[in-house]
Each structure stands twice: as C-alpha cells, then as structure tokens.
C-alpha cells in the first residue's frame, strides 16, 4: 500500500513539474505568429518579413559569451 501511495505521489509531482516546463506565458500566446516561414525564406527576402512575428524552433548547439553580447548558434527544427 505504501509503495502504491509513493508511486502516485511521485507521478503527480512529475506531472506538475513537466506541465510547468511546457506552458507558454499568456503574453506570448496572444501574439499572432507565422509558423510556416523558414529561415531561408527570410534570408532570401528580409524586407518582406520586417516587423513580422515569426515562430522558429531549434536546438542551441553552442553559446559564446562576449563583453557586450552573447552569440547563440541554433540549428533550425521544422514544425
């Protein structure tokens, strides 16, 4: 009985922890974004996409800290 209770509590804790990592703040959910715009499209015609909200996914593969800025190298992941 104690093992079942421990498993149940552990499962509930994991659900709450994982849910917190997966949520998007409300101010970001309300911004209309374009998800089908790739980096190559923007690079080919950047003037078309100026002042647009675009959502890209990716994986950070390197991070370089400089005095005035931080450079991130990101591999684009398609949705």
Descriptive overview:
The chain has 79 residues and is an alpha+beta fold. It has one domain (2-77). 39% of the residues lie in helices and 22% in strands. Strands 1-2 form a two-stranded antiparallel sheet. The protein is elongated. The model has no long low-confidence stretch (mean pLDDT 84).
Question: Which helices and strands, and how do they pair?
Answer:
Blueprint: H1 2-22, H2 26-29, H3 39-44, E1 57-65, E2 70-77
Structure keywords:
3 helices; elongated; two-stranded antiparallel sheet; 2 strands; single chain; alpha+beta; 79 residues
Question: What can be said about this structure in brief?
Answer:
With 79 residues, this protein is α+β, with helices and mostly antiparallel strands. Helix content is 39%, strand content 22%.
Strand content: 15-25%
Mean pLDDT: 84
Q: How many DSSP H or I helices? A: 3
Biggest beta sheet summary: 2 strands, antiparallel
H/E order of the elements?
HHHEE
The neighbouring-strand order within the major sheet is: 1-2
Q: In angstroms, what is the radius of gyration? A: 20 Å
The level of helicity is: 25-40%
Number of separate strands: 2
- What is the count of structural domains? 1
Structural class: alpha+beta
């Amino acid at each position: 009985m104690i093992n079942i209770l421990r498993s149940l509590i552990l499962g509930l804790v994991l659900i709450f922890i994982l849910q917190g990592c997966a949520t998007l703040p409300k101010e970001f959910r309300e911004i209309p974004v374009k998800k089908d715009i790739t980096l190559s499209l923007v690079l080919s015609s950047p003037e078309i996409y100026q002042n647009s909200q675009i959502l890209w996914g990716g994986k950070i593969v390197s991070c370089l800290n400089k005095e005035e800025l931080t450079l991130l190298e990101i591999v684009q992941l398609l949705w």
